[in-house]
Amino acid sequence: MTKSIISEKAKSAIGQSQPPITVEVSRREIQKYSLATQQSQQKYLDGDEAPPMFLFGLLRPLTPINELGPDGIARDASLPDLPLKRVMAGGTEMIWSRPIRPGDVLTATKTLSGMEEKQGKTGPLILLHYELDVLDANGSLVVKERSTRICR
């Protein structure tokens, strides 16, 4: 058996959640996003309902430009300290209970649900598995997202 490159400290992050993020959705935000992403359905353009990918931008932190990385993205606080520093998207699955609408107050909690090491063609890989639960003000699930990040 080969020695793992993932430290015990990094493994201890499994099951830990980031602090919840609460946001209020406005009709104008939905409309701006819908225009910027060239949506064609009137319900999105009118701001009556948010397109599914709206959630990604909604939950991004507001980061001053001088704190962004060289790639223009804020550092992801959910990443444990790992020996492999190049991080890429590995896939996302979203399960919707209902659409996002103007006036919704949503609370999102992101949890590191798993970590695994694999050998790729060009070297080792670490896969980080996350779960994101987005609840409305009544505590009802709006969307559950499962995603994977790949470190190499």
Map the helices and strands:
Elements: H1 8-11, E1 21-24, H2 27-36, H3 42-45, H4 54-58, E2 87-96, E3 105-120, E4 123-135, E5 141-151
Antiparallel strand pairs: 1-3, 2-5, 3-4, 4-5
Work out the helicity level. 10-25%
Query: How do the strands line up in the largest sheet?
Result: 1-3-4-5-2
Could you spell the SSE succession in H and E letters? HEHHHEEEE
Return Rg in Å.
Answer: 18 Å
Give the overall shape, derived from the CA principal axes: elongated
- Strand percentage lies at 35-45%
| C-alpha termini separation | 21 Å
Low-confidence stretches: none
Structural class: alpha+beta
The quaternary organization reads as: single chain
- According to DSSP, the number of beta strands is 5
Outline the biggest β-sheet.
5 strands, antiparallel
> Treating each run of at least 4 consecutive H or I residues as one helix, how many helices?
4
The residue-averaged pLDDT reads 92
Walk me through what this model shows.
This protein has a 5-stranded antiparallel β-sheet with strand order 1-3-4-5-2, with no helix packed on it. The protein is α+β, with helices and mostly antiparallel strands and 152 residues long. The protein has helices at residues 8-11, 27-36, 42-45, 54-58; strands spanning 21-24, 87-96, 105-120, 123-135, 141-151. Helices cover 15% and strands 36% of the residues. Strand 3 and strand 4 form a beta hairpin.
